[in-house]
Amino acid sequence: MVQSGYSRTLIGGLLLAGCGLVAPDPVIGAAASQPAQAPQLLLASSLHASIEPAPYLVSEKYDGVRALWDGHELRFRSGRRIAAPAWFLQRLPDQALDGELWLGRGQFDALSGLVRGADADDPRWHQVRYMVFELPGASGSFAERVARIGQIVEAAGWTQLRAVPQQRLIDRPALDRLFRQTVAAGGEGLMLHLATAPYSTGRGDSLIKLKPQQDAEAVVIGHRAGRGKYAGKLGAVRLRAGDGQMFWIGTGFSDAERQDPPAIGSTVTYRFRELTPSGKPRFASFLRVRDDL
Questions:
Q1: Which of 38, 65, 155, 266 is the most buried (most CB within 10 A)?
Q2: Which of 61, 211, 229, 233 is catalytic?
Q3: Mean pLDDT throughout 50-74?
Q4: Measured on CA atoms in the order 37, 188, 97, 122, is the torsion positive or negative?
Q5: What is the pLDDT of residue 48?
Q6: How far apart are CA 235 and CA 26, in angstroms?
Q7: Mean pLDDT lowest among 26-30, 147-151, 200-204
Q8: For 113-126, how does the pLDDT look when each residue is reduced to its tens digit (9 = 90+)?
Q9: Closest listed residue to residue 41, CA positions, set 137, 116, 115
Q10: Which pTM was predicted?
Q11: Beta strands 214-225 and 65-69: pairing type?
């Protein structure tokens, strides 16, 4: 008999109970492994009221898969190699690049399936664009690195290698207008990168994201059984965020995901409106499993 992911987790919890190793109620299971070691990259913070856009270069936030090119291999944020076709990799320059693999607005699921499928002969690779927004380890300000990205892309002369368009905005009303236009056209949001910033890694105000809803990643550390119409399926997952906060999310799951929920130890993306005074996400809902982390 084939068991769903949820059933396997439940049975595993019962077996632990039989050995006297009961997971903390009401969590079923516990994290079995630590996340893979990831390369050090610049990560975005969320926009806050005191930020003015004038010192920043502003671009669209692409709903793609972040990819780091070291001159030889293309890798996910997790450090795992992306099985891109040889002809795709051969068109990339020797220069290290940081950017997003992108199929277009609203095409994240199709792109994610493509890069995870490891099928180098899939014809959809001919539609994938590598949208470059950074030069890892390069000197100079971000504005200077943007100029160099443009030169690198122009020299490559390949339509699938693109420099992310950047622009200056004078004030918050201009930023708000561009944001509304981008979202109305199907874009995910905007990114603001401090024009004078040297290359750095970690999270801070040098890189800021602006989206209709905020999102973040967390590790699944437990499952809770559903009730009522969700009896016998997943009710909620318990997550641990990077700052150590732990909380439950019970919304945003499809019926298929409730039958075969995100594995314990996996990384997921969730959406939320704001943080509570204690630092926990308010109105959080599940978005997707991050296979690239």
A1: 65
A2: 61
A3: 92
A4: positive
A5: 64
A6: 11
A7: 26-30
A8: 899 887 878 999 99
A9: 137
A10: 0.66
A11: unpaired
Radius of gyration of the chain (CA): 21
211 is catalytic: no
Residue 51 tokens read as 């930020």
Q: How far is CA 156 from the centre of its chain?
A: 27
* Residue 115, C-beta contacts closer than 8 angstroms, at least 6 positions apart: 65, 76, 82, 83, 84, 101, 292
Structure-derived torsion over alpha carbons of residues 127, 133, 137, 143, reported in degrees to the nearest 10 = 150
For the CA atoms of 172, 132, 269, 285, what is the dihedral angle to 10 degrees? 40
Question: Exposed/middle/buried for 29, CB within 10 Å: 0-12, 13-18, 19+?
Answer: buried
- Tell me the two tokens of residue 72: 């030889």
CA nearest to 93, candidates 66, 72, 75, 79:
72
Q: Parallel, antiparallel, or unpaired for β 129-134 and 97-102?
A: antiparallel
Reduced 3-state DSSP string for the chain = CCCCHHHHHHHHHHHHHHCCCCCCCCCECCCCCCCCCCCCCEEEEECCCCCCCCCEEEEECCCCEEEEECCCCEECCCCCECCCCHHHHHCCCCCCEEEEEECCCCCHHHHHHHHHHCCCCCHHHHHCEEEEEECCCCCCCHHHHHHHHHHHHHHHCCCCEEECCCECCCCHHHHHHHHHHHHHCCCCCEEEEECCCCCCCEEEEEEEEECCCEEEEEEEEEEEEECHHHECCEEEEEEEECCCCEEEECCCCCHHHHHCCCCCCCEEEEEECEECCCCCEECCEEEEECCCC
